[in-house]
Amino acid sequence: MRSVFLFLAAFLASGVEAVEALTIVLAVGITRGWRSPLVGIGAAGLLLAGLVAGIGPALKEVPIDALRLVVGFLLLTFGLQWLRKAILRASGYKALHDEEEAFKQERDEAARAGHEVKAGLDWYAFTISFKGVLLEGLEVVFIVITFGSTQGRVGLAAAAAGAAVLTVIVVGMLVRAPLARVPENTLKFAVGLMLTTFGTFWATEGTGSHWPGSDLAILVILGVLTVASLGFVQFLRRRQRVAMGTA
Amino acid sequence: MKRFFRFWYEFVVGDDWVIAVGLVAALGLTVGLKDAGAPAWWLPPVAVLALLAGSLLRAT
After folding, report:
1. How far is A175 from chain B (nearest CA, A)?
2. Is B44 on the interface with A (CB under 8 A)?
3. CB–CB of B16/B52 below 8 Å?
4. Can you give the pLDDT of all 247 residues of chain A as single tens digits?
5. Distance from B10 to chain A by nearest Cα, in Å?
6. Which of A7, A13, A53, B14 is most buried, most CB within 10 Å of its CB?
7. % helix / strand / coil in chain B, to the nearest 5?
């Protein structure tokens, strides 16, 4: 069960981040040509793969309870950020992320930027692609390492992330447009729930406490968090309607 | 250097630092309860829900 959750969480989180990175790279590539953005993607990809390969095995040396406590805490801070934003977006308090709008903005900026050539590369196209892939990819690396290390399955988490990125690249190449129809907020909601669930489970185990029902507790935490989060969305929607009605 | 720390702060802590501080306090309390021999597993999930609710109310 843990492996299925691990794969799903890493796949969904990586997919969402890959969609955002694809938007940036597409805008730059279509506007300024593909060579420099592709070099940028390759450089960022190598750096990210190096991080996973370097940090993943090193974490095996850390005592498991300490690792679970720290990783659980990090998953909780990270997961709660995702969940909080997803709830605020679902309830209308925060604008939904619009890939088409982001694509237009990136494309306009890419068209306006000057042409500086460094190391034989269009430097603007290279740095924007490199930074875009690196920053979105860091979140993926974080999830792969934290999720994978607590269960000793960094390889599985990395494979899930790789599969998601590959899927997004293939679909992106086929449609050659930002993947605006991906239900991004729903995916972020699901990932936030999974990260928070595992964060709660591992952090508690890391304190030396044990869950009644062992692994089954994961399902109970996920269920309670899901019901509570959907409840928060309803509550905030109603609150906003009342506020608008009285304004 | 400042930008480096700012990046990691925003990456890990994000928009609401109260959540991070609250989690540290809740996990510290959980260790304390467990060391005192009391059941402590219930505390982190309760703290997570309370911190999420508080953060949402502050944001709206």
Report:
1. 31
2. yes
3. no
4. 678 888 888 888 888 888 888 888 888 888 888 899 899 999 998 998 888 888 877 777 778 888 889 989 998 998 999 899 999 999 988 887 777 777 788 888 887 877 777 878 888 989 999 998 998 888 888 888 887 887 778 888 889 988 998 898 888 878 766 666 667 788 888 889 988 999 999 999 999 999 998 888 999 999 999 999 999 999 999 988 888 776 6
5. 10
6. A13
7. 80, 0, 20
Are the CB atoms for A167 and A10 separated by under 8 Å? no
The partner residue sitting opposite B60, judged by closest CB among A81, A224, A236, is: A236
Residue where the block lists tokens 């982001």: A102
* Residue numbers in B near A204 (CB within 8 A): 30, 40-41, 43-45
Q: Retrieve residue A232's tokens.
A: 């928060």
A214: left (phi over 0), alpha (psi -120 to 50) or beta: left
Confidence (pTM): 0.79
Q: Collect all residues of chain B within an 8 Å Cβ-Cβ radius of residue A91.
A: 60
Residues 6+ apart with CB under 8 A from A26: A103, A172, A176, A177, A178
ipTM of this complex prediction, to 2 decimal places: 0.92
Do A207 and B30 make contact, defined as CB atoms within 8 angstroms?
yes
Residue in B20, B31, B60 closest to A207 by CB: B31
Question: What one-character-per-residue DSSP string does A166-222 give?
Answer: HHHHHHHHHH-S--TTS-HHHHHHHHHHHHHHHHHHHHHHHTT---TTTTHHHHHHH
Would you say A109 and A31 are in contact if contact means Cβ atoms under 8 Å apart? no
Say if the Cβ atoms of B56 and A80 lie within 8 Å.
Answer: no
Closest to A208 (Cβ–Cβ): which among B31, B45, B55? B31
